[in-house]
Design goal:
Largest sheet: 5 strands, mixed
Radius of gyration: 27 Å
CATH architecture of one domain: Roll
Structural class: alpha+beta
Length: 243
């Protein structure tokens, strides 16, 4: 236990000097030190790296096993169904046409297939298919966000939308270091995007595909100031008892 105001003052000064030295060191490291993602494509190179191939740019969601679908047939309520499950084999079952392969098709393609089969029973049937719940198309969000986790996506989405699913970045996020990992046909890709520039409209909002992994980096400087602010009540206590 510290005795005497002189000892308290000396200890308080030591703490303040230590925080100042730490602040200077981390600030210098954050500004001049090597970037852990320095070798990963960023800027225009990032967009070129993550540009989806023509076959990957889906105009609609690709249905997968264990998804559920809402199927509507215009003016035919007996055929319209909500919550139609896609089984583990990728099939759905409907009245009249029985089993239909749904997995691997977009909603538009499945609607067209259902219309073709219903032509045996109806004149020009009009079918719509909507994904009610998605299991097969998910994106993982990690790092400095409010709620890291795995999130469903039901169609084309973007980086800003995915960050919003995770309730946004937290106070220690490095906005310039948002990393996207992707694997297509056993080919692994990674690129870094600047979330601040995207929000300001200076850079495009990149497309995020199912099974992508998004990692929001950590800012040493922001983390330091968070720690300093958390330590502020302690320093105030030293000041009070040192009087």
């Amino acid at each position: 236990m510290l005795r005497g105001s002189g000892a308290v003052k000396r200890f308080r000064s030591h703490v303040i000097r230590s925080v100042a030295v730490l602040a200077f060191g981390l600030s210098a490291a954050g500004c001049a030190g090597p970037n852990v993602v320095g070798s990963v494509p960023r800027g225009q190179a990032a967009y070129a790296t993550m540009q989806p191939a023509p076959g990957e740019v889906a105009k609609d969601y690709v249905i997968g096993p264990l998804d559920t679908l809402d199927v509507g047939v215009f003016q035919e309520p007996d055929l319209s169904m909500k919550g139609v499950p896609v089984d583990v084999s990728g099939n759905i079952s409907m009245p009249l046409i029985r089993t239909v392969q749904a997995a691997g098709l977009t909603t538009e393609q499945l609607a067209q297939e259902l219309q073709t089969r219903l032509l045996k029973y109806y004149v020009r049937p009009q079918v719509t298919v909507v994904v009610a719940t998605s299991v097969s198309q998910r994106v993982t969000v990690q790092g400095q966000v409010e709620e890291p986790g795995v999130y469903d996506i039901k169609g084309p989405t973007t980086l800003l939308n995915v960050i919003a699913l995770a309730k946004g970045e937290n106070r220690t996020a490095a906005m310039k270091d948002v990393v996207v990992f992707r694997e297509v046909d056993s080919r692994k890709m990674v690129a870094v995007f600047d979330l601040g520039r995207i929000r300001r409209g200076q850079d495009p909002d990149p497309r995020i595909l199912g099974n992508d992994i998004v990692v929001v980096g950590y800012s040493n400087v922001k983390g330091l100031w968070r720690d300093v602010l958390q330590a502020a009540p302690l320093l105030n206590a030293f000041r009070f008892y040192g009087r």
